[in-house]
Design a protein that fits this description.
Distance between the termini: 99 Å
Mean pLDDT: 80
Strand order of the largest sheet: 2-8-7-4-5
Structural class: alpha/beta
């Protein structure tokens, strides 16, 4: 009897243990973290890689996304798209090294490979896409720039903020890019180094507000940017021949700068009505050779 009683107690104990395990399973499963997926997901610090989208603006020297964010301690995949025929790239650099990197890459025509101060980047591309793998970084703010000569100086730059509080807040639209516009009142234009043309031959801004145009001429050949009244291009080009391209005081000129070489200038454009306005280079012979574009001001 004692043996049978002992066996009964053992059987009862085993049954209790099994029942307890069975009841515990649902709670264990519920406590397990769920996997996430889909574009735009951002992992917390220490998680897997984050994917960010960046695009070059097709009408001016700037990135469509000028601020990006990611969590600390994770690798980052940057998907860079350049829809323009003008070469651009995306290069992440050590804080404070923007000027040095931009200067150092002049000799390589913008290729950041092997340049001191570069965290990650890619060679310039046109009308295509590329991927940049960024190793995990400590919390902080890191600048990114386009290292094609003259583009950084013209304003093609942005910042990547690394930190857990920044995760998932990338100021991007559902498609991963922000629409290009001149709503900020600041536009960038550059002279082409290889031809008598502007790199941006079409710009868009807001009507009835002042505009600031940052003009960059990376070439040793003189150029300028001059906005004129519609239909006055030929007259202005002819009138500025005597002043060697200086548009100051010339009838038909809305705003412009004297010719410059290997430098940049800022042109303040007063508020204009909605419409399309031509801009030209008034250095003698340059407009006739095709150095012109249009600024469309939208209501």
């Amino acid at each position: 009897m004692k043996v049978r009683g002992w066996l009964a107690l053992v059987a009862l104990a085993i049954a209790i243990v099994l029942a307890g395990c069975s009841r515990a399973d649902p709670s264990i499963i519920a406590a397990a973290p769920e996997a996430t997926s889909g574009a735009g997901d951002t992992n917390v610090a220490g998680g897997g890689p984050t994917s960010l989208d960046v695009a070059a603006d097709p009408t001016q020297l700037k990135f469509q996304q000028e601020t990006l964010n990611a969590a600390e301690g994770q690798t980052i995949t940057v998907n860079f798209n350049n829809p323009a025929a003008v070469a651009h790239n995306w290069v992440l650099v050590q804080p404070g090294q923007e000027d040095a990197v931009a200067q150092a890459t002049t000799a390589s025509n913008g290729d950041p490979t092997g340049i001191t101060g570069v965290i990650a980047g890619m060679a310039p591309i046109t009308s295509s896409s590329a991927t940049v793998e960024v190793p995990a970084q400590q919390a902080g703010t890191y600048p990114y720039i386009c290292t094609v000569p003259g583009h950084y100086a013209a304003g093609m730059k942005g910042t990547l903020t690394v930190g857990s509080a920044a995760a998932g807040d990338n100021n991007q639209t559902a498609g991963g890019t922000e629409p290009a516009s001149g709503a900020s009142g600041v536009l960038a234009v550059a002279a082409d180094q290889a031809a008598l043309k502007f790199q941006q031959e079409a710009l868009t801004g807001k009507a009835e507000q002042p505009l600031t145009v940052n003009f960059e001429n990376p070439s040793a050949l003189q150029h300028n940017w001059v906005l004129v009244q519609p239909g006055q291009e030929d007259a202005v080009a002819q009138a500025t021949t005597a002043s060697n391209g200086d548009p100051t005081g010339i009838t038909g000129v809305i705003a412009g700068n004297p010719p410059i070489a290997s430098s940049s200038a800022t042109v303040e454009v007063p508020a204009q009505q909605a419409g399309t306005y031509p801009y030209i280079c008034t250095v003698p012979g340059h407009y006739a050779a095709g150095m012109k574009g249009t600024l469309t001001l939208e209501p």
